[in-house]
């Protein structure tokens, strides 16, 4: 083991002394979900950005859709979701529905299944709860106005953060659990996504921010305790002494509605949270949401291919030499190095996305996965080709082998993502 480690250190030292560390300015494009900073406008002239690019980006931002001229159905779907048409006094009015998530990608994917259900429920709950929170008023005449305002704003912020996470692919399980714990006082032990998990649903017993808000406002219906653990004597009145009118009882009712909305949403999260645990390859996935992850992985592989090229440049194996550098494989036909890289790049940039758009789950399982498996095998052999001894010394360096290993790992990741949504071709039914 020590000998192997010493050999690796020796090779790395030779690598560093024989070949320079090349540097270049890195300018990755913005993430699909990012937005330009507040108060800034896109340039219409300078910076090498044409008017067509500016318009395309504006359309993409409005529709939440990655523009693709070859996908009219995807455009129509994004347009339908982005605008609501209403007939008012004989005319049609349109209202824009801002999206905090990508409705469509270049694979025509979007939030579907469990996440779409959660997000829809959460958004409706948020709309109702924020309005009700603004209308709550303290029944306890001794309630501190500063605490009243602070608790209301805290609850609104925590609800908004939960909804925001449901719009992210994939949502942060840790962050959602944390905010439910803060808002409702739920235990982490209850957030295990087990079928028998139960949470406190009684508005007079929940804790967390909402429970503290209830106590400070004095808007409980039935008093359960004097403090966190001190129970009332059975002879004491359980009725709310601050509630003296129908309006006061409506105030209590509004709090109970908020509590019911959020505890119901928590139950839905517990029932569906298993779909968002990052156990790649070990759990089923919904196609629409998974396509967003696969689209990102396609882009990662393109970047990795270019990183391999940059690494080869750093050991003096330039573009022209790569076109003539023959790699001899034991189980695949011999190929020139640049052809290997271009084949991967072309597949993840064009062929792979097209296969998914045209064939859906069946194409994922019966076309995309076999091709990706071939590319994985090809890159594995490219790290140690049969003619390695006759290749330039630069190709044998750890930096090149490591970059090829990274490309191999990214292709494997794509294979795992595809395996979660693939479907075999249905068998032919026998007639008669």
| Spatial strand arrangement across the major sheet | 1-2
Order of helices and strands: HHHEEHHHHHHHEEHH
Report how far apart the termini are: 66 Å
Record field, number of beta strands: 4
pLDDT below 50 for ≥5 consecutive residues: which ranges?
Answer: 30-48, 100-105, 227-237
- Supply the helix-strand structural class: mainly alpha
Share of helix among residues?
Answer: 55-70%
Portion of residues in beta strands equals: under 5%
Main β-sheet, in a few words? 2 strands, antiparallel
Mean pLDDT comes to: 78
Rounded to the nearest angstrom, the radius of gyration is 29 Å
Description:
The chain has 12 helices and 4 strands. The strands form 2 sheets. The chain has a two-stranded antiparallel ribbon with strand order 1-2. Strands 3-4 form a two-stranded antiparallel sheet. A hairpin with a 7-residue loop joins strand 3 and strand 4. Helix 4 runs antiparallel to helix 5, helix 4 runs antiparallel to helix 8 and helix 11 packs across helix 12. It is about 55% helix and about 5% strand. It is elongated and about 90 Å long. The chain has about 425 residues and is mostly helical.
Question: Could you give the topology of this structure?
Answer:
Elements: H1 2-18, H2 51-63, H3 72-82, E1 83-88, E2 91-96, H4 113-135, H5 145-166, H6 173-184, H7 208-217, H8 246-272, H9 287-314, H10 319-324, E3 326-327, E4 335-336, H11 337-383, H12 398-419
Antiparallel strand pairs: 1-2, 3-4
Helix pairs in contact: 4-5, 4-8, 5-6, 5-7, 6-7, 9-11, 9-12, 11-12
């Amino acid at each position: 083991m020590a000998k192997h480690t010493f050999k690796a250190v020796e090779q790395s030292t030779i690598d560093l002394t024989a070949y320079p560390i090349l540097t270049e300015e890195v300018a990755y494009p913005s993430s699909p979900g990012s937005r330009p900073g507040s108060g800034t406008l896109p340039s219409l002239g300078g910076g090498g950005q044409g008017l067509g690019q500016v318009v395309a980006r504006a359309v993409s931002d409005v529709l939440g859709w990655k523009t693709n001229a070859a996908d009219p159905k995807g455009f129509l779907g994004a347009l339908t979701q982005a605008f609501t048409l209403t007939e008012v006094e004989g005319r049609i009015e349109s209202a824009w529905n801002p999206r905090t998530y990508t409705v469509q990608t270049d694979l025509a994917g979007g939030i579907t299944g469990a996440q779409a259900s959660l997000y829809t429920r959460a958004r409706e709950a948020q709309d109702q709860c924020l309005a009700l929170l603004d209308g709550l008023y303290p029944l306890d005449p001794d309630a501190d106005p500063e605490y009243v305002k602070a608790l209301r704003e805290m609850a609104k912020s925590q609800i908004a953060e939960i909804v925001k996470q449901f719009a992210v692919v994939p949502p942060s399980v840790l962050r959602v659990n944390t905010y439910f714990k803060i808002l409702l006082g739920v235990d982490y032990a209850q957030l295990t996504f087990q079928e028998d998990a139960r949470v406190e649903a009684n508005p007079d017993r929940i804790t967390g921010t909402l429970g503290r808000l209830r106590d400070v406002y004095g808007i409980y219906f039935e008093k359960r305790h004097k403090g966190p653990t001190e129970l009332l004597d059975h002879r004491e009145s359980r009725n709310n002494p601050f509630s003296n009118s129908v309006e006061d009882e409506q105030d209590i009712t509004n709090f109970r509605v908020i509590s019911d909305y959020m505890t119901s949403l928590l139950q839905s999260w517990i029932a569906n949270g298993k779909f968002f645990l990052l156990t790649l390859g070990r759990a089923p996935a919904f196609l629409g949401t998974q396509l967003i992850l696969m689209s990102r992985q396609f882009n990662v592989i393109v970047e990795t291919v270019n990183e391999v090229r940059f690494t080869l440049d750093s050991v003096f194996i330039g573009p022209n030499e790569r076109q003539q550098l023959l790699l001899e494989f034991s189980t695949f036909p011999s190929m020139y190095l640049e052809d290997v890289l271009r084949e991967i790049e072309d597949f993840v940039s064009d062929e792979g996305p097209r296969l998914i758009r045209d064939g859906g789950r069946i194409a994922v399982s019966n076309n995309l996965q076999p091709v990706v498996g071939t590319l994985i095998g090809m890159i594995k052999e490219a790290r140690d080709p049969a003619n390695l001894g006759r290749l330039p010394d630069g190709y044998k360096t750890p930096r090149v082998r490591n970059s090829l290993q990274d490309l191999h790992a990214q292709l494997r990741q794509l294979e795992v993502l595809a395996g979660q949504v693939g479907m075999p071709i249905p068998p032919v039914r026998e007639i008669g």
